[in-house]
Amino acid sequence: MSKFLEVENLNVSFPTEDGLVQATNEVSYSVGLGETLAIVGESGSGKSVSNLAVMGLHNAGSTNISGHAWLDLPSGRVDLISAKPEELRALRGKEMAMIFQDPMSALHPFFTVGKQIAEAWHLHNTGSKRAGLARAVEMLDLVGIPDASKRVNDFPHQFSGGMRQRVMIAMSLINNPSLLIADEPTTALDVTVQSQILQLIKDLQKEFNMAVIMITHDLGVVAEVADRVCVMYAGKIVETGGIDDIFYQSVHPYTRGLLASLPRLEQSSLGHRLLAIPGTPPSLINLPNGCSFAPRCAFAEHVGSGLCTSTTPKLELKREDQWARCHLGASDVSRISQLQIGATING
Amino acid sequence: MAENILEVNNLKMHFEGKRGFSFGSETPVVKAVDGVTFNVKVGESVGLVGESGCGKTTVGRTVMKLYEPTSGEIIFQGQDISKLKPRAMKKYRSSMQMIFQDPFSSLNPRHTVGSIIESSFVIHGITPEGGVKEAVRGLLAKVGLNPEHINRFPHEFSGGQRQRIGIARALALNPKFIVADEPVSALDVSIQAQIVNLLDDLQKEFGIAFLFIAHDLSVVQHISDRVIVMYLGKIMEMAPTFDLFLKPRHPYTKALLSAVPVPDPKIGRAREKILLQGDLPSPANPPKGCVFNTRCWKAQDLCRTTVPEVLEIAPSHSLACHFPE
Ligand SMILES: Nc1ncnc2c1ncn2[C@@H]1O[C@H](COP(=O)(O)OP(=O)(O)OP(=O)(O)O)[C@@H](O)[C@H]1O
Ligand SMILES: Nc1ncnc2c1ncn2[C@@H]1O[C@H](COP(=O)(O)OP(=O)(O)OP(=O)(O)O)[C@@H](O)[C@H]1O
Ligand code: SF4
Ligand code: SF4
Ligand SMILES: [Mg+2]
Ligand SMILES: [Mg+2]
């Protein structure tokens, strides 16, 4: 059975004055109805760029895109990458929707939220103004805005950050899309509000059996919402697998490094040094030869004949349903980790 | 028992609001910091946490005397500095320093790293032993930067490296106390740990006292001996780190801790979350009584009328709540 969205070998690059920015490189991922895929990675790793390509939101003139993004519609499979702009317009909002970190930038300051939400409905439905507004109230109510029938007449600045994100969710879901892409939807919010919004997305997903892609840099958020995870580094997916596999038996040294570097609330990490990953991510204009993570990787020296700095690893199946872009096998990685932990403890 | 390097008593910092549409002469006042009392001991690291707008930065900036406090005492090394004028403040400036969240905007883009750090010495008319250049090189090495890069400009460094420059600048005059305002919030996950470790090392090595401001509780837990939790300009709870995280007594602390997403799916699935209703009220118009009462699941009539006092319930553990956990 095919998944609702299947992204295949997506490459997005931007020609700039300094050179070609290879923002995503052979990126493939998929998400099924009712499933949540988290895409996690550091700033600039290509999370937004890949999903903007799926939504057809890149500027065609200044962006090179290749690859496929199949949407499995009842009427047949559609490739979003080669689709015409008017086809995409018909699908956006109706079959797929995206919300962003900063809801204020997506809302018009001079129109009431009701008008803006209704507008999203009118794009794909024929009906009276009154019907549109009634639908807007229904949606505001659904996303937990108290007093929806009154608040529908308010302007965006009259809402708090968390409520604006609720408004965005209401607007993006008004036509019952089957795919919701949420790009750092809670990054600008406080933790107590963040947990409300994450819960809301989970509840709505269940109610409407949506496919959800959650883009985040926060492994805590990933742990909380995801069924499956893609870890991105320097424009590539370096590891992908089920949630528990990624958190408890990750194979890629970068994933392991990230998890080890986190200060944790639950265990008493008081007095322990964090295990930081040395160095910084590479420039996308001038990627290192071989594995992009090699300059920072503590495992590279265990790989023979300079392979890591000469040959780019492919995304390979390492364990059942778990892929990693690394020359090492799963058993090598856990063996070397043991060695390294031993070395740290013994000084 | 170690003595205090800083003692803050009933500190208030109220900002005059903009003259809005309101009639009459009344202008809305933002009570950004509204009567906070705490201390920082010599060499101690105190974390300050709370949600956006609760007054963390304002506490930090007021303690540094970057703002003129509305009222209250700021006793630094035994001397009340709250009313000192800038000139009289000068002799304290070298012992107290600040590190900012945004390493990009806090460094002058037209100055080399060397001259940015040098300026700390110049402003205070101090000539370090062995000369300024040597001292700057030493500082760069201390924060993990290549001393050869002394003539580079801020934009030639990554975010984490720029934060190191900010730290080097703060260390120049051997401060005894540093306010670090969200020093790792703007950094990537893999870089945060590097900076946290660096601050950790510096604190231990030089016995610098820290007021460590952050909204990320896991970072605070890692770096602080004691933690202060603020909400809408007031202190809700204050306790040794271990006690606060293990057994929070204030409902707000409990909710805050429970809202932090943990990077461990099994623990996440097993634990029960407290979902607070509603949003943060505006600090220009805080609720009467306990400021947390509009979102607190334990609120009763008393909470809506009477402000709970901050009481010490155990050694070094105090909180402001009528009905603690
Ligand atoms: N229009 C553009 N022109 C040139 N470079 C671009 C453009 N859009 C994005 N990039 C570059 O592509 C890379 C990937 O960007 P992307 O926005 O996908 O990162 P991200 O993983 O979403 O990061 P963040 O966590 O910061 O949002 C970055 O290096 C970015 O600078
Ligand atoms: N210079 C100022 N003039 C007027 N109001 C101010 C000023 N500085 C801060 N405030 C207000 O005081 C309150 C507390 O702000 P502060 O920056 O101290 O919060 P914070 O806890 O540091 O928040 P954040 O986590 O967002 O940094 C906010 O409502 C803010 O808008
Ligand atoms: S391929 Fe080599 S450098 Fe890359 S992650 Fe694997 S071990 Fe490290
Ligand atoms: S005083 Fe009342 S409202 Fe405030 S935290 Fe305690 S129980 Fe809640
Ligand atoms: Mg992004
Ligand atoms: Mg602040």
TrEMBL record, chain A:
Location(s), subcellular:
Cell membrane
Q: Does the keyword Nucleotide-binding apply?
A: yes
All copies of the ABC transporter domain together span 5-259
CDD domains, A to Z: ABC_NikE_OppD_transporters
Q: What GO terms are given for molecular function?
A: ATP binding; ATP hydrolysis activity
A Gene Ontology term for the protein's cellular component: plasma membrane
Under the heading Gene3D superfamilies, the entry gives: P-loop containing nucleotide triphosphate hydrolases (3.40.50.300)
An example GO BP is: peptide transport
Q: Which UniProt keywords apply?
A: ATP-binding, Cell membrane, Membrane, Nucleotide-binding, Transport
Look up and give the membrane topology term: Peripheral membrane protein
Task: Return any one Pfam family short name.
Answer: oligo_HPY
Protein name in the entry: Unannotated protein
**Organism of origin:** freshwater metagenome
Automatic annotation (TrEMBL), chain B:
One Pfam family named in its UniProt record: oligo_HPY
| Taxonomic placement | unclassified sequences, metagenomes, ecological metagenomes
Protein name as it appears in the record: Unannotated protein
PROSITE patterns reported in the protein's UniProt record: ABC_TRANSPORTER_1, ABC_TRANSPORTER_2
Supply one GO molecular-function term.
ATP binding
* Record keywords, A-Z: ATP-binding, Nucleotide-binding, Transport
Q: Which organism is it from?
A: freshwater metagenome
Q: What InterPro entries is this protein classified in?
A: AAA+_ATPase, ABC_transp_ATP-bind, ABC_transporter-like_ATP-bd, ABC_transporter-like_CS, Oligopep_ABC_C, P-loop_NTPase
Question: Which GO BP terms apply?
Answer: peptide transport; transmembrane transport
Q: Which residues form the ABC transporter domain?
A: 6-257
Ranges in a coiled coil:
none
- Read off the CDD domains from this record: ABC_NikE_OppD_transporters
Identify its protein family: Belongs to the ABC transporter superfamily.
